[in-house]
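Please fill in the sequence for the structure shown.

STRUCTURE ENCODING:
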């Protein structure tokens, strides 16, 4: 299948491109190397894909409508996996307008691009953050999602709503995929597991916001990728929403213990005030994905952190 992957140089995008290439799909990755984190990291993410004969890459901004349209008309994707976004909750508090522009307008551009290029299927990355600070767990796809607590969450929910509109008006087959805290090799450097690993390995203090009792449904990147690949290949139509999570939340304080164990050093912990925009917990109900996509997350937090730490050592990020 001809698959376009936006955000293809990013953490999840590069893993997804590799997995799709292994399964003989023809991939067009695009990314603008947004400076949110270092370009060199994204170039390294892409290195494996670039060697593959079924891979092409375009450096392109999804806000650049003319270039996007030209590319789609030439490549003629059968399905688009839309991962390009400004990710991360805390920075969205400082740059809400930019988040809205890339995550909402950018997603509209992708939908419009599909109409221009005759592509009828879009899988769009959404986030557990759309559930807001919900107290009913686990989070179910049918739960109301009208109380986002950060600009990032609001932008992701807005993008979902826009995607539904394109399904309704134009008949696009759309799936919104709500990823739950994804981690693993190539994880964005500012995310908790990457940051804590660096700090613990270099014996610098680790700040936990809140009292350490918040929890996240950490999901290993290969499990997320298996869910996305399954949906790409199953060709399910209509309008769909799927949680992709591990469905076994981990407390922040327990996460630190797991990282300490894998790194082999004790953390120097300090506590800070809980931050606006953060939620107390995330926890995915994954029954729908299990049933429709045969989605069965396999990697435990201990295994996953172990693999992350081994990778960080291999690339020299920690010693
Ligand atoms: N990592 C997680 O825990 C997580 C959780 C929930 C949802 N998500 C979503 O999954 C997707 C991928 O996240 P990730 O963790 O791989 O992040 P990432 O930042 O590594 O990847 C996103 C990529 O999009 C690119 N990008 C940003 N703006 C762009 C633009 N205007 N045009 C073209 N490319 C642009 C970036 O350069 C980056 O390479 C995002 O949509 C994110 O919101 C991620």
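FILLED IN BY: designer on duty
SEQUENCE:
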């Amino acid at each position: 299948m001809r698959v376009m992957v936006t955000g293809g140089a990013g953490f999840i995008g590069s893993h997804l491109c590799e997995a799709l290439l292994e399964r003989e799909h023809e991939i067009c990755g695009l990314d603008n190397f947004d400076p949110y984190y270092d370009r060199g990291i994204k170039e390294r993410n892409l290195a494996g894909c670039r060697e593959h004969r079924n891979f092409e890459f375009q450096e392109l901004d999804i806000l650049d409508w003319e270039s996007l349209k030209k590319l789609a008309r030439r490549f003629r994707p059968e399905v688009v996996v839309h991962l390009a976004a400004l990710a991360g909750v805390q920075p969205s508090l400082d740059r809400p307008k930019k988040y809205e522009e890339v995550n909402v307008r950018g997603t509209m551009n992708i939908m419009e691009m599909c109409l221009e290029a005759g592509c009828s299927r879009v899988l769009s990355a959404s986030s557990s953050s759309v559930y807001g600070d919900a107290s009913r767990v686990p989070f179910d796809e049918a739960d109301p999602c009208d109380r986002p607590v950060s600009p990032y969450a609001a932008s992701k929910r807005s993008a979902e709503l826009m995607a539904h509109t394109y399904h309704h008006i134009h008949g696009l087959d759309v799936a919104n995929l709500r990823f739950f805290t994804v981690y693993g090799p190539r994880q964005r450097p500012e995310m908790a597991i990457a940051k804590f690993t660096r700090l613990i390995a270099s014996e610098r203090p680790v700040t936990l916001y809140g009292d350490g009792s918040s929890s996240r449904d950490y999901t290993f990147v290969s499990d997320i990728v298996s869910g996305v690949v399954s949906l790409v290949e199953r060709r399910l139509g209509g309008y769909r929403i799927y949680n992709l999570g591990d469905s076994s939340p981990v407390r922040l304080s327990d996460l630190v213990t797991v990282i300490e164990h894998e790194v082999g050093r004790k953390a120097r912990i300090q506590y800070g005030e809980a931050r606006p925009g953060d939620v107390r917990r995330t926890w995915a109900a994954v029954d729908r994905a299990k049933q429709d996509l045969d989605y069965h997350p396999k990697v435990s937090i201990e295994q996953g952190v172990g693999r992350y730490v081994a990778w960080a050592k291999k690339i020299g990020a920690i010693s």
